[in-house]
Amino acid sequence: MSMSYEEAAYEQYMNDLYAEHRKEAIEEFTFERLCSYYSENTLLAKPAFDTLSEARKLNELNPTAGLIFAAIAMEVGLKATLLKPIVHGLVHAESVASLITDLTISHTSMDRYRTLLLHVLQEHGGVDLNTFKRSGSTKTLWEEINEVQKIRNTIMHRAEKASEQNADLALGVSSEIIDRIFPEVVVKMGFHLHDGYRICSDWKCKHKGTHLEKIIDST
Ligand SMILES: [Zn+2]
Question: Ligand 1: distance of its center to the CA of 146 in Å?
């Protein structure tokens, strides 16, 4: 498939942007900045978390509606809870961080950014999305994410219907991101969650209701 002039120019712009940022991004990455992003944005997972529970309810009435909401939760969850915090650790400028986060999962020429992000996620978050598979699945999670995006597009652009199987896939994938991977990464950063989404950095919580709490309170 040949590219139009605009597409070629865009591609070139992206390549330049990548070349410009790649080296300093890797050199300047700080774990502290990644952690501080989580501790300063304690509710970053809430929109995706709420959308996922909405998706579960809708799915009982209509799998197509369930799939659309699950696909929203999947993309927003991936961006808000994993990719954006990492980009924030890599790139100091907020505007560039948002741009790269959006492009990573929306534009194919951003494969190299994706590789970079997934590398950092593996190193600091302990999960390799390139090889990670949900239990019982033969495909990688990243392949399943792409599959859900394709089904979502056929619904949005061609008004097709989702099968129950499609909707289950979308719900499974978004739940894997929001209910499993995100909590694991958060724990690895030294935080924990309340109500399934709220990030908490108060280490004393762990001892709530135990005899240790009384000791901590009295000191
Ligand atoms: Zn807590």
Answer: 34
Q: How far is the CA of 200 from the centre of ligand 1 (A)?
A: 5
pLDDT in tens, 67-126: 999 999 999 999 899 888 887 777 666 666 666 667 666 655 456 667 777 777 888 788
Residue 107: exposure state from Cβ atoms within 10 A (0-12, 13-18, ≥19): middle
pTM: predicted TM-score of the whole model, two decimal places: 0.80
H-helix or E-strand spanning residue 22:
helix 5-28
- C-alpha of residue 197 to centroid of ligand 1, in Å: 11
Among 204, 207, 199, which residue's Cα sits nearest to residue 45?
Answer: 199
CA of 198 to the centre of ligand 1 (A): 9
Span from the CA of 83 to the centroid of ligand 1 (angstroms): 23
